[in-house]
């Protein structure tokens, strides 16, 4: 006898764009008779119309990555897996485990939007019974292998393991609902101040009047500290920029000073250009002093100035009226006497 499906065929791509469906009275989409499978048969693969129906249950309070990774492992146990997730109600959870942060409706919706979940079973039983397994045509149950003691039992999955229907998954270390709650309790003041700052009232947070004033004062102090810290960061940034600029200026000044000193030495140094110029000029002036240049041959004759009149000609000498100057020496006297005798002869 074949089971008739009352649901549409589930496309694996729908799990990425649509939330998972809620289970009805029976939600087995198998068209072939539901026969029990062994783990070896499931790992080899099953026909498309006969997926391996794997069941995982839990509280899933404060749904986090540890929950998602466990469901991912359950989804990937076999090549063709249809994952059903059972979520316990608030009544059962508060009775056997404790108070939850999220309500059962919030937890149902959180599971529906996990990409690995194909179907959500609301108000799941705390202990799995053969009747429940047969009703939902469950082939295997996936859970971590740590014994789960609850409801007077050392391990609520013991009978599942004995029936060969248990498939273990691995827990994600460092993350759990209890860890998250522990962080909130440990840092209660921080989160209370945070929510007061975001507009929640002291009544909503169950905070006393004195604590409310204390938290608000602490928030103001923190804001002032943040402003001071911001100013310090800006000032540090400004100082760093000034230091960078000063380093650049000093470096440029050093480069320019080196260039100036080099040019000065090149010009006025022991072997500089200025010394050579002075030596050339001094040598040229000395040569001019020792050997002055001659006047050119073709220079024009010196003419008298028109403003000057020529001096009158001197009258002819009259030797007979002229008085000879006395001789200064005997030789001069004899010379004059001889000249006078010669003049007389000429006259004669």
From TrEMBL:
Residues 55-183 form the Cytidyltransferase-like domain. Keywords: Lipid biosynthesis, Lipid metabolism, Nucleotidyltransferase, Phospholipid biosynthesis, Phospholipid metabolism, Transferase. It comes from the Eukaryota. Transmembrane segments: none annotated. It catalyses: phosphocholine + CTP + H(+) = CDP-choline + diphosphate. Catalyzes the key rate-limiting step in the CDP-choline pathway for phosphatidylcholine biosynthesis. Its EC number is 2.7.7.15. Residues 332-341 have a biased composition (Low complexity). Residues 290-348 are annotated as: Disordered. CDD domains: CCT. GO terms for molecular function: choline-phosphate cytidylyltransferase activity; phosphatidylcholine binding. Pathway: Phospholipid metabolism; phosphatidylcholine biosynthesis; phosphatidylcholine from phosphocholine: step 1/2; Lipid metabolism. Belongs to the cytidylyltransferase family. This is choline-phosphate cytidylyltransferase. SUPFAM superfamilies: Nucleotidylyl transferase.
């Amino acid at each position: 006898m074949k089971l008739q499906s009352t649901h549409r065929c589930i496309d694996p791509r729908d799990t990425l764009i649509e939330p998972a469906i809620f289970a009805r009275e029976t939600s087995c989409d198998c068209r072939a008779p539901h026969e029990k499978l062994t783990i070896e048969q499931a790992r080899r693969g099953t026909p498309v119309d006969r997926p391996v129906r794997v069941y995982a249950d839990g509280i899933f309070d404060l749904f986090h990555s540890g929950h998602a990774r466990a469901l991912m492992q359950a989804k990937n146990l076999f090549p063709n897996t249809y994952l059903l997730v059972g979520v316990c109600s608030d009544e059962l959870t508060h009775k056997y485990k404790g108070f939850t942060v999220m309500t059962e409706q919030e937890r149902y919706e959180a599971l529906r939007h996990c990409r690995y979940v194909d179907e959500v079973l609301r108000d799941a039983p705390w202990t799995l019974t053969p009747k429940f397994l047969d009703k939902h045509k469950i082939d295997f149950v996936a859970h971590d292998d740590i014994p789960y003691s609850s409801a007077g039992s050392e391990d609520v999955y013991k009978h599942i393991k004995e029936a060969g229907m248990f498939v273990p998954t691995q827990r994600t270390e460092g993350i759990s609902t209890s860890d998250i709650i522990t962080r909130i309790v440990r840092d209660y003041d921080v989160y209370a101040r945070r929510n007061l700052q975001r507009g929640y009232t002291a009544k909503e947070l169950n905070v006393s009047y004195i604590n409310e004033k204390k938290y608000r004062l602490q928030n103001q102090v923190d804001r002032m500290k943040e402003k001071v810290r911001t100013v310090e960061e800006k000032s540090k940034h400004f100082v760093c920029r000034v230091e960078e600029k000063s380093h650049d200026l000093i470096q440029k000044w050093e480069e320019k000073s080196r260039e100036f000193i080099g040019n000065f030495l090149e010009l006025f140094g022991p072997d500089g250009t200025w010394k050579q110029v002075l030596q050339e000029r001094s040598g040229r002036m000395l040569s001019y002093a020792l050997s002055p240049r001659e006047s050119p041959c073709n220079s024009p004759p010196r003419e008298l100035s028109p403003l000057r009149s020529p001096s009158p000609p001197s009258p002819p000498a009259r030797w007979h009226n002229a008085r000879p100057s006395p001789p200064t020496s005997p030789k001069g006297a004899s010379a004059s006497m001889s000249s006078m005798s010669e003049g007389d002869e000429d006259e004669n």
